[in-house]
Batch of 3 targets.
Target 1
Amino acid sequence: MAEQHYDVAIVGCGIMGSAIARRARRSGLRTIAWDRLIDRARAVGEGVDAAPELQSATGSAEVVVTMLADAAATLSVMDAHHGFDAMKSGSAWVQMATIGLKGIIKARLVASQRSDIVFLDAPVSGTKQPAEDGKLLILASCDRQDVPEPVQRLFRAIGQRTMWLGPVGQGTRMKLVLNSWLASIMEALVETLAVADVLDVPHERFAECIEGGPLGTPWAIAKAKKIDSGKTHETEFPLKWADKDVHLALEAVKETAHDRELPALEAIQKLWDRAVESNLGDRDVSAVYEALKTPAASAR
């Protein structure tokens, strides 16, 4: 398999990595996928080949996409386990997961060891369905202006819009800002629904009041409907990764501006930590509503 040529290699076959792989293949890009658990790579399906070894994936593609859980996993795979070393000359490493400022600095350092490979910091905004539909927002940043055409093809396949934000690191910075906004909306929504519960106001009436107006974001309304239909187990964006992203945002701010206070985001971090500890981490981020209904979680 290492001798075959692919347009794209997806490293990490979780919810987003699998969806991106399927979308890339449906768009005509020859796609291979690798995961530490080979069965997950095989389960991607839809014509996406499963790589038995990491190097057979990264060494056979024009574009290598990392979509792993965090910075530690990304650096382990691409550095310690030589995924980066196996990449062929002229290819591109596109880092699409949310790994924080420290993580992207370390990844950039690894990539700097070879001048024949282009490195892009390009986290995406969107969940599973937008990824499947090619409607992600790509927050791209790169130290070069001449981004290779294979990368452009991938972005056209999976993204509804690509924002070019400047040198490496700017994509990650914007992703932390967006995910802070997401966390704030999510927590505001579930606490508002909790107020509605106490005051005996039906959730659907609340949704009717805000839908179509300046107070009603489509994403929040969709999450409210997900909660009411009892489908928070159908995960689009896992709560544990949303919680991780809040930690990364707070970490970045504290290291940049030591005296900056973010009391609301810090409170969300504590609440979501408890929700993850109460075994809600693998459920959709909207499952924080369930945490509010659990006395043990709120009484600590």
Target 2
Amino acid sequence: MLVGVVIGIGIFGFPPLVAQHSSTPEIYMGLWLLGGIVMFIGALCYAELGSAYPDTGGEYAFLSRAWGVNVGLLFAWARGTVIQTGAIAAVAFIYGDYAQVLVPLGKYGPALHGGLAIIALTALNMAGTHESKRVQLVLTCATVLALVVVSVAGAALPEAAAAIPGQPLSAPVGGLAGGLGMGMVFVLLTYGGWNEAAYLSGELRNPERDMSRVLLIGALVLTAVYLVVNFAYLHVFGLAGLRASQAVGADMMALVAGEWAVALLSLLICCTALSTINGSIFTGARIYYSLGRDIPALRGLGAWSERGATPARALLAQGVITLVLVLFGALSNGGIQAMVAYTAPVFWLFMFLTACSVIGLRLRDPQRRRPFKVPLYPITPLLFALSCLALFVASVRYAGIGALLGLLVLAGGIPLLWLQKHTQKA
């Protein structure tokens, strides 16, 4: 589930942007390795939190325990209206773009394809957890296998085989430090989604043992896959050619598959996007379920379907909100860019607070049994927190007015705090 959520469209879109902020091939590969290390450090922090406090609410439960119920409720609101639903909508647009190549549906074809995928996969998850997991396993295996095949085929091609006019290997814009910073932003966007495993902690057979295994093994697999893929890109295109590529996946497939490149690439991206959408729908609905469990006025969302072992009403609510965002994106220019700008700043803000929760809970709850403890404490969580804070600042600068919209929607959750307090008094 974790690998399927993370490996997505980013590996086909962000490598040229990372290359533009790298002055040498060694720095380019080093950024991808560093991104994997940051993800691994984050996984260590989440492994401690998830094994000590297993809960289907994931970060909602961690933040509520560390910083109080008000922060937890604001996160739940943000995840349900901005972070998770916006991310699902963004991937749905990407899926729609490639599905439109295979089955054109007119002017709004991408949005229609994306909306249909959300409806179908929401229905699948409502049918049952086991059915969703089986489909996720098939999609994930197909995605990883396809990436490995493309990478091996690319590595077998002559070095710098792509006939793409290269950009000169000058120093990145903003100097070395600025280039490395922006390069890491795009690298970590590609790695994004690994933290979704936190929402599985309440459903693992033995969370005290398995949570750390899921996160750490998943992080290692993801880092290895991305390093192999990027080595193949660099081998085939060279750094200059990679900088100039507008669609690195398409260019790679054109070299590997010739005239079948467009269809094969579209099928690959559709498979990858569906894997991400399904995994995100599965984990995302758990936050609505936790809200319904904790706020009496929203208890309808806390209903659990014993038949399918799934939060059916929570899945339905999430699907409706996501479809509204897809409609919004379809009526605006650049649906994908709008969703990224809308979600990123809010996401990194709460990721920073979650990183700080490791330290906060050690201080507030020292007697709690912790089956897994993050090594080199407190250095490790502090490094992760600083990384998240830097990414929050960078994403606000990148998103502009989109960041303001996302933060305004976050502020719109303040009435939830009153509702929770009011229902407690009642």
Target 3
Amino acid sequence: MKKSTLTPWIFVCIILFSSFTSYSQRNEWVNQVITVNSGKYESTPPYNDYVTVQTYNPVSQQSVGFGIIYTQSAQDVVISGKYAYVAAGDSIIKYNLDNYQRVVAKADSGISKLFIYNDRLIVSKQGPIKRFFVEVLDATNLSLIARIQNISGDCGGITANGDSIYVAVPGTYGTPEGKLAVIPSDTWLLSREINLGPDAVGIWNLYNYNGHIFSVNRTIDGGPQTGSISRYTLYTNTFTNTIFEMNFGDGIGIKNNFLYLNINHGIGSINLTSLQIADPEIVPDPGFVNRIFITSAGIEYVDGNIYVNVGNRISNGTCKVYSSTGDLLASYNTGINTDALAFDYRTPVSIENGVVKFNFRIFPNPVQDNLWTSLPGNTTINNVKVTDLTGRAFQVVPVPDNKNLNIDCSGLNPGIYFLTVQTSLGKMTHKFIKN
């Protein structure tokens, strides 16, 4: 093995710094939560139910659907900036989350998981794919950049460290070990597969955290009721597998050194330092024996709230929002089989093409009657527009008052709207909710 020219301590510091900055909050907030609902499973046409996409506002606790995809299954959703990428059936759709419009769509097949790496969308594949189990797409227009061959089987979760992509390789049903495929981004060629052994069977979700790649290895149907966590140490290129006498499902995220995942059909946590169960039941099993399932879940890293989608797979379900200690905070209605969710994180200042736009605040949000905006001083207001999700414009009466703007919204019907203000400093759009 070729040795690095970096000293071990410098190398460790670089890894730890990279990991810390990846998980720091960076003064962000959760702007909205995007959930993707698969349709009702229908074996023969005509099909009557399709994939739907909806948004949930954590402040107003209101949820609205904004997209229909004419297929029946959803695999994944990831968000980068203001764009959401949805894998549904044999397609990938990119949405603009500021106006909820479809940007571009691409036909594809065998989609498993999605991951954003810089300006690339990494797509892992599974059957019926037989050869190219990872694709690299341009995140802007979804055009194909590379297909990765020589991976030994079906692929799952994806993460990255430095200039390398790591992909979970669970293989097909009955594969005797779990593997990690390593793909350098400068060549987009498979460099190697790391065999994590039989204790990593069921490898699925991957996380780059604190100098390690962690994998959640799910319990295999029909096999022993055990799950495991693999920890691959980036500096030493070594790994350990820790087996738990529990049923493991999907991992849902990391917060403050704890890995949150589906344990015994509920949500629990594992301490990533000791690799021991921290809490086996933060969120209880909703009724697995009665065919009520957790269909997907996620933990947002700003406040640590856990979003858990629950349903029976034949009727509309519910997303329940819990604190990291298991207190129920809110809930909202979803569709059938809510199989994917993602968090839209935003920062106080918008940066586009290297130009920092001005701060633009609106309040209250949600609004009942009068909506106020706060703009920088010495700002000339040129135009004010309010539109709905379809782009239809509504006449409102703006009253400028120095850097504040008062807009009468009492005549608007309840729903989601966009306020666009064109000023001497540029144009900015903000979403608001009318109660």
